[in-house]
Write a structure and sequence with these properties.
The complex is a heterodimer. Helix content of chain A is 6%, strand content 39%. Chain A is mainly β. Chain B has helices spanning 26-33, 49-63, 77-81, 111-126, 130-144, 158-163, 191-194, 227-238, 255-265, 273-278, 295-299, 306-318, and strands spanning 12-15, 39-41, 68-75, 96-97, 166-168, 171-172, 182-189, 203-211, 247-250, 331-338, 343-350. The chains are: A mainly beta, B alpha/beta.
């Protein structure tokens, strides 16, 4: 296990619907593994998972990522009309550049929105929101004093 | 009717709509309008759809697939959905989300948030400021004051923009477009046919499109759009350079959208958009007046604004823009952005036959 799996009491946010390609990603995240795809032919890495390499078209393979990354860019959502997010403002939506290269969207939690900056080192954790579905979050990599 | 084309002359039809279902599909719309076409296209790239339509229609007319094209757009977005587009979220409570959206929906991003991430990255890389972005909203509002149909017409200052509440950092309320109902239509035909019509013709000098991603989380570089490729391509086809352009009608869903398009189109260097805007080029009386109808930021935005860019560029080139008329307007560029800075379409229009 490379990323921590945390419990969730009740999940009311939108739920990813696993499909033949994404099921492996969500399932792994629920078990503490962050998966990306790597092309066995050209070596390109990609996220989100697809049935083909976007560079050369070959069937990609799964690769376990380190769960480490940095904030590439972010915003603080302060106005949001949709439940349950409405009750959580302000919160951070960020693009995380994984150490392995690809980027993914996620929330950065575990610190005040004011403490998030571009370049901040972050680490992944996941929350199992349904059996076999782990949603990945990120938090600052260093413990705050 | 405005153009003097008889309805029976229309033999090509293009349209796009957002969230309207089958009843707003191009085929259904053609039936409703009673258009007997031999060429139809419903390319849907979000707000830039109509720049792509113009490109496709021009090619179809040149190819002889049709002679006279109608492009339509109508939206009751405000009436139907209220002001939920920008900050309503992309997934409902407890909903199972399929497709690429499943990798974004759990995180509660908003449409404003997507553009805010681009603005934040541009500020980080180039030192762009909120005040520079605000200049865009201030200039466009000045033009809205000249348009009796604009939603917001009272002048605003840079201070008003940066002091308006943050919706998604670093974008403030007045960095965001309005939400409205709206619609428009345009007719395209051969230059020969256009000569005898009621309105002075405006010529398509160049048109090009491009795409870098669709979902915002797939944007390869948050400070570069496909305008960087399709802008120069459209201008090369037209045989013009940015210096030749008299007015720009740019997609202003947000202030940052304008800045990224300006840089992509080559009106300033990459990263220098903020300084360029602060120099006042885009203001009324400047050398490159922007969104002379009041834009999406102040006049109207019904979800897919690309149609209005083409209409306003045409009004300017015909000399029919009233108090907002740009003097000696010969070349206009319309550039639409669809999705989340995803699909960009650039059109160069001219007053004189090329």
């Amino acid at each position: 296990m490379t990323i921590e799996v945390r419990a969730v009491e009740a999940w009311t946010k939108p739920i990813p619907a696993p499909d033949p390609v994404s099921a492996a990603f969500w399932g792994a995240a629920a078990e503490g593994k962050l998966l990306i795809q790597r092309c066995p032919s050209c070596g390109s890495r990609q996220f989100y998972p697809r049935a083909m390499c976007t560079t050369c078209g070959t069937d990609p393979e799964w690769e376990e990522a380190s769960g480490r990354g940095t904030v590439y860019t972010f915003t603080v959502i302060r106005q949001q009309g949709a439940e349950p997010f409405k009750g959580e403002v302000p919160y951070v939506v960020a693009m995380i550049a994984l150490d392995e290269g690809p980027m993914m969207m996620a929330n950065v939690t575990g610190c005040a929105p004011e403490d998030v900056s571009i370049g901040l080192a972050v680490r992944a954790y996941s929350v199992e929101v349904e059996p076999g579905v782990g949603v990945v979050y990120w938090e600052p990599a260093e413990e705050r004093p | 009717m405005d153009s003097g084309v008889a309805k029976s002359d229309i033999d090509g039809y293009l349209s796009a709509s957002m969230g309207g279902g089958d009843s707003e599909s191009p085929a259904s719309m053609a039936e409703y309008l009673g258009v007997d076409h031999r060429y139809i296209d419903g390319t849907m790239t979000g707000g830039s759809s109509f720049e792509f339509h113009l490109q496709h229609a021009a090619a179809a007319i040149r190819q002889g697939l049709c002679e006279t094209v109608l492009v339509t757009y109508g939206s009751d977005f405000l009436s139907r959905m209220g002001r939920t587009l920008g900050t309503g979220g992309f997934g409902r409570e407890g909903q199972h989300v399929q497709g690429p959206a499943q990798y974004e929906a759990p995180y509660g991003n908003t449409l404003v948030g997507a553009y805010a991430m681009a603005a934040r990255r541009h500020m980080h890389e180039y030192g762009t400021t909120s005040e520079q972005l605000a200049e865009i909203a201030v200039g466009v509002r000045e033009y809205a004051g000249l348009n009796p149909n604009a939603m917001y017409r009272d002048p605003i200052s840079v201070k008003d923009v940066v002091n308006s509440r943050l919706v998604a950092d670093p974008l403030h309320k007045l960095d965001c477009c309005v939400i409205s109902d709206g619609g428009g239509a345009l007719i395209m035909t051969t230059a020969e046919r256009a000569r005898d019509l009621r309105q002075p013709p405006v010529y398509v000098l160049g048109a090009a499109g491009g795409q870098t991603h669709w979902h915002i989380s797939q944007m390869p570089d948050f400070t570069t759009t496909a305008a960087a490729t399709c802008g120069p391509a459209a201008m090369a086809e037209a045989g013009v350079t940015p210096d030749d352009v008299d007015t720009v009608q740019l997609y202003d869903s947000f202030t940052i959208t304008v800045l990224l398009l300006l840089e992509g189109l080559g009106f300033c260097k990459r990263g220098e958009g903020g300084a360029y805007i602060a120099e006042g080029h885009l203001r009324r009386g400047g050398d490159l007046p922007l969104n002379t109808d009041g834009g999406g930021l102040s006049s109207c935005h019904s979800g897919m604004r690309g149609m209005f860019l083409l209409i306003e560029a045409t009004r300017q080139l015909r000399g029919q823009a009233g108090a907002a008329q740009v003097p000696d307007c010969n070349i206009a560029v319309a550039c639409g952005s669809g999705g989340w800075l995803s699909c960009i379409g650039t059109v160069v229009l001219g007053r004189e036959h090329p």
